[in-house]
Specification:
Blueprint lengths: L4 E2 L13 E5 H7 L9 E2 L2 E15 L2 E5 L3 E5 L5 E16 L1 H5 L11 H4 L6 E3 L2 H18 L6 H20 L11 H17 L6 H7 L4 H12 L3 H19 L4 H7 L5 H12 L3 H20 L1
Parallel strand pairs: 1-3
Antiparallel strand pairs: 2-7, 4-5, 4-6, 4-7, 6-8
Helix pairs in contact: 4-5, 6-8, 7-8, 9-12
Pfam family, one: HTH_18
Keywords: DNA-binding, Transcription, Transcription regulation
Protein name: AraC family transcriptional regulator
Length: about 300
């Protein structure tokens, strides 16, 4: 079974707006419980702010605490699911890329730090004062969303932009000026991430990406080392491992088939590569993940 990829139109709403959705988190959970009860992907951008509740939010095999004041940001294609210990509350909205970028032609979603790269944490902790400010903005969007008024879409996208700006200011608050990089370096990193996402299955060497970017492999490695403190090869490997993890635990395909789909010449090579990067064989990783799922379900039934 493949990981389901959800689209905006699947979610229940009061007033339709084809490329945008917002709800209180408790209502969202109640209305769409069947859709989000297991790990899934989205084909849209998602933002959620928790004002109450505790639990764990797993995003691409990284676990983050759910607590009041925590915000999360997901880009299309990321796998995630929620595990709540206490009843959550807050706001959630999601939208297509076009919903935002057709209104702000000179600004892309990828320019916000939390959507910029899979290297950046999809998580932010807010102060009580910021929670109040942002909750008011979320509430204003929700009110506008439920009403039939002129300029509805324009107002909503403008408020979304304000929310993203507020989040970005908080997200980058602790970045030291000495760690800011030339725009040319960040542009190369952004393009590299896009190229890796498109080609990582069949192009695993830095030379291919350097050629596509019209720069030398040496210069590419220098840029990536400077901006991420990693090598180009490490970024490629991390993307391969992430996809491997997704397929291993969220599909019913055999491990040899997964190896083939990721274009490894032999399963033994894939297994050695995976263990080198994760410390676990693909088989043990799948087994351990399934055992954790069963334990979680049993705890809920007690």
């Amino acid at each position: 079974m493949k990981t389901p990829i959800l689209n905006i139109n699947q979610f229940k709403e009061t007033i339709p707006l084809s490329d945008f959705y917002i709800n209180s988190f408790s209502d969202h959970l109640h209305l769409n419980k069947k859709l989000i009860s297991r790990p899934h992907k989205h084909n849209f951008y998602l933002c959620v702010l928790f004002t109450k509740g505790t639990g764990i939010h797993e995003i691409d095999f990284n676990s983050y605490k759910i607590e009041p004041g925590n915000a999360f940001f997901l880009s299309p294609g990321q796998t995630h699911f929620w595990k709540f210990d206490t009843q959550p509350e807050g706001f959630i909205f999601f939208h297509s890329q076009e919903f935002y970028e057709l209104q702000f032609l000179e600004h892309k979603l990828s320019e916000f730090p939390f959507y910029y790269s899979f290297q950046n944490p999809p998580f932010l902790k807010l102060s009580a004062k910021k929670i109040e400010i942002l909750s008011q903005l979320f509430d204003e969007i929700h009110t506008e969303y439920l009403e039939l008024k002129s300029f509805k879409k324009l107002k909503i996208v403008s408020l979304v932009n304000l929310i993203y700006i507020e989040f970005s200011k908080n997200y980058t608050h602790n970045i030291e000026l000495t760690k800011l990089f030339p725009s040319s370096y960040l542009n190369i990193l952004e393009k590299l991430v896009i190229l890796i996402n498109e080609n990582f299955k069949n192009e695993k060497l830095p030379k291919f990406y350097a050629n596509r970017l019209n720069i030398t492999t040496k210069h590419l490695n220098r840029v990536i080392k400077e901006t991420t403190n990693k090598t180009t090869s490490e970024l490629i490997s991390e993307r391969i491992v992430l996809e491997a993890k997704r397929l291993i635990v969220h599909s019913s395909e055999s491990l040899s088939t997964i190896s083939y789909n990721l274009e490894f010449s032999e399963y033994s090579y894939f297994s050695k590569f995976f263990k080198l990067k994760t410390g676990s064989t693909p088989m043990n990783f799948r087994k351990r993940y399934k055992e954790d799922e069963i334990n979680t379900i049993q705890k809920k039934l007690k």
